[in-house]
Specification:
- This protein is an all-alpha fold and 174 residues long.
- The protein has one domain (2-167).
- The chain has 6 helices and no strands.
- α1 (2-12) packs across α4.
Length: 174
Amino acid sequence: MLSLVRLYADIALLRRGPEDLPASLFLLVATVVANFLVNFAVSLVLPPIAGPWHMHLIVDIAFTLAWCAALLRVFGRPERFLQTTTAVFGYQTVLAPLWIATAWLAGRFQDDELWLVPVAILGLGMLAWMLAANGRILRSALEQPMPVCIGLVLLQTFVGQLVLLGLFPSPAPP
């Protein structure tokens, strides 16, 4: 178990990739469950967004699985689905506490002139880190140049946000 957490941390730190994981449905399911539980637990302590964040989490997980399946099929690498999605959920699980804490801090200090800039810089740093980690996973899985993979990660983020907005529209101001 600890060696698996280290492997996911190494993926998050760009030291290893999805090719270092076994192609195992059980490992993918266990990693998705761990991702959900870590996100759920941290979000209970520091809710990053108002509203049904637990439903956002479920939709995000389903969307990530569907996105990876579609992307790997389009690039002719569907056999890499288990390792790629396991790596994506694994590194996200490791970084979830930092990511949620950063989102919580951004909400907490959005009106505080003193802390707004440092928190925004922290948020941009986390975003860059996650883009790099996910881009590296895709580069390995799709065998495409890093700029293409970063573009695909940005597209995934954009489309994922559109899906969430479509399913959970923001209430109109009074």
